[in-house]
Amino acid sequence: MSEHHEHHLMSFKTHINVFVALIVLTVVTVLLSSKFGLVDFGKAGLLVALLIATAKAAIVMGWFMHLKYDGMMNRVIFLSSFFFLVLFIFFCLLDILTRINPRL
Questions:
Q1: Does the pTM exceed 0.90?
Q2: Could you read off the pLDDT of 45-101 as tens digits, one per residue?
Q3: DSSP state, 6?
Q4: Domain residues of the chain, as ranges?
Q5: CA–CA distance from 39 to each of 29, 31, 34, 52, 70 (Å)?
Q6: What is the residue-wise DSSP string for 9-77?
């Protein structure tokens, strides 16, 4: 019943590339925030922030959680849970955005 699991060691260059990508995405998030206001996305600002956060999460999942090197079954299970999270957020946003504002 023993299964052979191969461990994937990432090179130092890969760690540096992942680190740089995460830092760049973090800087983009900060620069696009309303505090600095380089670009005003209005109501789409939340969507842009969520897309950047999703990209950072995908990088972390792929390399640090080793999903890039893992079997297809683990990818499907993880991505299906991620899909339901996105679906939950979508329905929450749909509810919030379609409410009637009593102040109008």
A1: no
A2: 778 888 899 899 889 988 888 777 777 888 788 889 889 988 998 999 888 888 877
A3: P
A4: 12-97
A5: 11, 8, 8, 15, 38
A6: PPPHHHHHHHHHHHHHHHHHHHHHSTTT-SS--GGGHHHHHHHHHHHHHHHIIIIIS-TTTS-HHHHHH
